[in-house]
C-alpha cells in the first residue's frame, strides 16, 4: 500500500491514504466455495483378485457364470473372459464388488500382452458413434427387416487371440472345462458366508 | 423282575438267528420296494417282546448291560468350550456333575490340559484306559495313553471318521465341491448300470 500524503488540517495534520477504503460494501455475505480435500486415488483391488483367478459373477446378464480374471483395470473394474467358447462370456469389464474370487487359478502366463493392453485401453468397450444418422426414410423402413447386429470382427479376433492360450491351459486339467461351463447357484442349506471358495 | 442296570431278555434264544436270516433274505428279495426294511425290524422286535410272556416256562437269561460309566480311566469327548471336539481321560471324579480330566495326546494339536470339566459338556465314549490309578498325574496318564494306543483307536472309531469327513467336506473349495459332485454322479451311474443288469437277468 502506498503511503499517501500528509495533509494539514488547521492545527493538526493527518495522513490521507492514497487509495481510500471502499464506500460501499456488499450487504450479503458472499459464500466461499468449499475446497475439495479428496483425491482420486487408484482403486485398491482385493488380494484374492490375482490375474488368472476363476471368479463367480454375481450380478448382471452373466450372473452365476464362472469366468477367468485377466486384469484389474482402474477404479475397481475387472477385465474378464469366459472363455467365450466354454460359457459364452465375452471379454468384458465387471465390477469387482459383484464377484466372488475362488481359490482356483488358471495359468495365463502365455497371454499376449499387446492384445491385453489394447483391450484394457479406455475407449475399447465404448460404443462407436453411429455412422449414419437416422433418417425419416430409415424410420419407415424399420418394419420391413430388422438390421442384424454384427459383432465387430476386430473384437472377435481379439477374443480368439486371448482365449486360445487360456483354452490350452484349461484342457490340461480334468473337470476344469466343465467347471467353467456350469453356472454357480446356491442349493438348499447352502450358507455362502460359511463356504470356502 | 427287571434288575437295575441289567437287560432282561426272555424267550429262548431270541433275535439273533432270525435277524441273520432276515438279512440273508434281503439280497434275494426285490429291490424295488422298501417293504423288506420294515420286515427286517418287525420280526425280531416281536421275538424280543412276545405278546404272551410266560416267564415260568422260558429260561431267563440275565446279562449285565455294558453301560458307559463315569469312572476313572473313561475317555470322554469334550463337546463345548475351548477344547471342543477333543478327547480326554477322566482322572478323578470331583462330584456328581464335574470330573477332573486330562488329555495328554501324542499329537500336539489334540492335547487337553488337566482341568475340571462339567459332565454336561462331555460325552462318554466306549474307550477306557484300564487300571488308570485315581488322580494319576499327567506323566503316568500320558504313558498309559500311549500304551493303550488311544489316539489310534479313536481315529478308527466311526464317530471320529464321520467328523473328519464332515470337516473335510466343509473346507472344500468351490472347484473341489464341483469335482465331488461329478465323481459322485459317475459312481452312481456305474452302480445303477450294474443294478439294471442284475434286474434284467432276473427277469429273463
UniProtKB/TrEMBL annotation, chain A:
Pfam families: Ribosomal_L6e (PF01159). Residues 1-11 have a biased composition (Polar residues). CDD domains: KOW_RPL6 (cd13156). Gene3D superfamilies: 2.30.30.30. Residues 1-33 are annotated as: Disordered. The keyword Flavoprotein does not apply. One of its GO terms (cellular component) is cytosolic large ribosomal subunit. The keyword Signal does not apply. GO terms for biological process: cytoplasmic translation; ribosomal large subunit assembly. GO terms for molecular function: RNA binding; structural constituent of ribosome. Keywords: Ribonucleoprotein, Ribosomal protein. InterPro entries: 60S_ribosomal_eL6, Rib_uL2_dom2, Ribosomal_eL6_CS, Ribosomal_eL6_KOW, Translation_prot_SH3-like_sf. PANTHER family: 60S RIBOSOMAL PROTEIN L6 (PTHR10715), LARGE RIBOSOMAL SUBUNIT PROTEIN EL6 (PTHR10715:SF0). This is 60S ribosomal protein L6.
TrEMBL record, chain B:
It comes from the Eukaryota. Gene3D superfamilies: 2.30.30.30, 6.10.250.2270. The keyword Ribosomal protein applies. Pfam families: KOW, Ribosomal_L14e. GO terms for biological process: ribosomal large subunit biogenesis; translation. Its main location: cytoplasm. GO terms for molecular function: RNA binding; structural constituent of ribosome. Keywords: Cytoplasm, Ribonucleoprotein, Ribosomal protein. One of its GO terms (cellular component) is cytosolic large ribosomal subunit. Residues 69-96 form the KOW domain. It is found in: Cytoplasm. Component of the ribosome, a large ribonucleoprotein complex responsible for the synthesis of proteins in the cell. The small ribosomal subunit (SSU) binds messenger RNAs (mRNAs) and translates the encoded message by selecting cognate aminoacyl-transfer RNA (tRNA) molecules. The large subunit (LSU) contains the ribosomal catalytic site termed the peptidyl transferase center (PTC), which catalyzes the formation of peptide bonds, thereby polymerizing the amino acids delivered by tRNAs into a polypeptide chain. Belongs to the eukaryotic ribosomal protein eL14 family. This is KOW domain-containing protein. It comes from Penicillium bovifimosum. The lineage of its organism: Eukaryota, Fungi, Dikarya, Ascomycota, Pezizomycotina.
Amino acid at each position: 500500500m502506498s503511503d499517501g500524503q500528509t495533509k494539514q488540517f488547521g492545527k493538526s495534520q493527518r495522513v490521507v491514504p492514497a487509495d481510500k477504503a471502499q464506500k460501499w460494501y456488499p450487504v450479503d455475505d458472499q459464500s466461499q466455495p468449499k475446497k475439495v480435500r479428496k483425491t482420486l486415488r487408484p482403486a485398491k483391488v482385493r488380494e484374492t483378485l490375482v490375474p488368472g483367478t476363476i471368479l463367480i459373477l454375481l450380478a448382471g446378464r452373466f450372473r452365476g457364470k464362472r469366468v477367468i480374471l485377466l486384469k484389474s483395470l482402474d477404479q475397481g473394474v475387472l477385465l474378464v473372459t469366459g472363455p467365450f467358447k466354454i460359457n459364452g462370456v465375452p471379454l468384458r469389464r465387471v465390477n469387482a464388488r459383484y464377484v466372488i474370487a475362488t481359490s482356483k487359478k488358471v495359468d495365463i502366463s502365455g497371454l499376449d500382452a499387446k492384445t491385453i493392453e489394447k483391450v484394457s485401453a479406455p475407449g475399447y468397450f465404448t460404443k462407436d458413434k453411429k455412422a449414419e444418422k437416422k433418417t425419416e426414410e430409415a424410420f419407415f423402413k424399420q418394419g420391413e427387416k430388422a438390421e442384424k447386429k454384427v459383432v465387430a470382427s476386430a473384437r472377435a479376433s481379439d477374443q480368439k487371440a486371448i482365449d486360445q492360450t487360456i483354452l490350452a491351459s484349461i484342457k490340461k486339467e480334468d473337470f476344469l472345462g466343465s467347471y467353467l461351463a456350469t453356472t454357480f447357484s446356491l442349493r438348499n442349506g447352502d450358507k455362502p458366508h460359511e463356504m470356502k471358495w | 423282575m427287571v434288575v437295575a442296570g441289567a437287560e432282561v431278555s426272555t424267550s429262548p434264544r431270541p433275535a439273533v438267528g432270525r435277524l441273520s436270516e432276515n438279512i440273508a433274505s434281503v439280497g434275494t428279495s426285490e429291490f424295488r420296494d422298501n417293504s423288506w426294511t420294515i420286515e427286517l425290524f418287525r420280526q425280531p422286535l416281536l421275538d424280543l417282546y412276545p405278546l404272551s410272556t410266560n416267564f415260568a416256562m422260558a429260561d431267563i437269561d440275565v446279562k449285565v448291560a455294558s453301560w458307559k460309566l463315569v469312572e476313572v480311566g473313561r475317555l470322554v469327548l469334550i463337546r463345548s468350550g475351548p477344547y471342543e471336539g477333543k478327547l480326554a481321560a477322566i482322572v478323578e471324579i470331583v462330584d456328581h456333575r464335574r470330573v477332573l480330566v486330562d488329555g495328554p495326546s501324542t499329537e500336539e494339536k489334540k492335547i487337553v490340559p488337566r482341568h475340571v470339566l462339567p459332565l454336561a459338556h462331555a460325552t462318554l465314549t466306549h474307550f477306557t484306559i484300564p487300571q488308570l490309578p485315581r488322580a494319576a498325574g499327567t506323566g503316568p496318564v500320558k504313558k498309559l495313553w500311549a500304551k493303550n494306543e488311544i489316539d489310534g483307536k479313536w481315529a478308527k472309531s466311526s464317530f471320529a471318521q464321520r467328523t473328519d469327513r464332515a470337516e473335510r467336506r466343509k473346507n472344500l473349495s468351490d472347484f473341489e465341491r464341483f469335482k465331488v459332485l461329478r465323481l459322485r454322479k459317475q459312481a452312481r451311474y456305474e452302480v445303477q448300470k450294474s443294478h439294471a443288469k442284475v434286474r434284467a437277468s432276473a427277469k429273463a
